[in-house]
Amino acid sequence: MKQVERPEFKTKAHVVFDDLRQRIASGALIPGERLLLKSIALEFGCSEIPVREAFRSLAAGGFVELVPHGGAHVSAPNVQDIAELTEIRALLEPEATWLAAQRLDEPALLELEVILTEMAAVASAEHAPAYGALNRRFHDVILSHCPNRKLATTINDIWDRAERGRLVYLKGPNFIADSLAQHTEMVRLIRAGEFAALRELSVRHSHFGLQAVRDLAAWENQSPSRKVGSHR
């Protein structure tokens, strides 16, 4: 009997957590910005209890620091943590991409091609936040077809936790243009069924991002006053 898929249910705390995490990752909420318990509860139309729970989850992920009386403020991203997380993703994602690519159907490939078109449109303007969001969507489509769900979930969690650093290194010279070329080649290889070549490209692509994070870490280590959150 075919199993019926049920829509994922999210608690109010999860909804608040997801929304705030995305705002922090995108730079809409900046390091040091205060998150007021009552204001957030009013915004989401809920009691303070799920907001407190969301704050605790955000703190556990390094997105905020809790302050007395139930509030929180956005923490500055730790570039060394981001580098280590990206290194783990570089080890895992090529395998997940290889597994998933062999299971991508025509609708998924068409979706990837639509995303590529949108990426090209924002790449010319060097619009890092928009490109970063599309980049994440591109990889999400692929990972959603990975047969090893625990592997895909682990990689997605790493993406979430390292997202803020990505907005900074996306602004590096030629990074977006090079990244777009790699994504375009990925789709071509998937279309051609060249999965071994895709795996090799995915390794290079992952290390391309990893090197950008390492360069950022080296830049920050040159001066203690330099922080990822100050690059705006």
Q: C-alpha Rg, in Å? A: 19 Å
Net shape: globular
Main-sheet strand order equals 1-3-2
Helix and strand composition category: mainly alpha
Going by CATH, the architecture of the largest domain would be Up-down Bundle
Detailed description of the structure:
- The chain folds into two domains: 12-74, Arc Repressor Mutant, subunit A; 79-230, Four Helix Bundle (Hemerythrin (Met), subunit A) (Up-down Bundle).
- It has a three-stranded antiparallel sheet.
- It contains nine helices and three strands, in the order αβααββαααααα.
- By secondary structure, it is mainly α.
- A hairpin with a 3-residue loop joins β2 (64-67) and β3.
- The termini are far apart.
Outline of the structure:
The chain is mostly helical.
List the helices and strands and how they pair.
Elements: H1 12-26, E1 34-35, H2 37-44, H3 48-60, E2 64-67, E3 71-74, H4 79-101, H5 106-123, H6 128-143, H7 149-169, H8 175-192, H9 195-221
Antiparallel strand pairs: 1-3, 2-3
Descriptors:
232 residues; Arc Repressor Mutant, subunit A; Four Helix Bundle (Hemerythrin (Met), subunit A); three-stranded antiparallel β-sheet
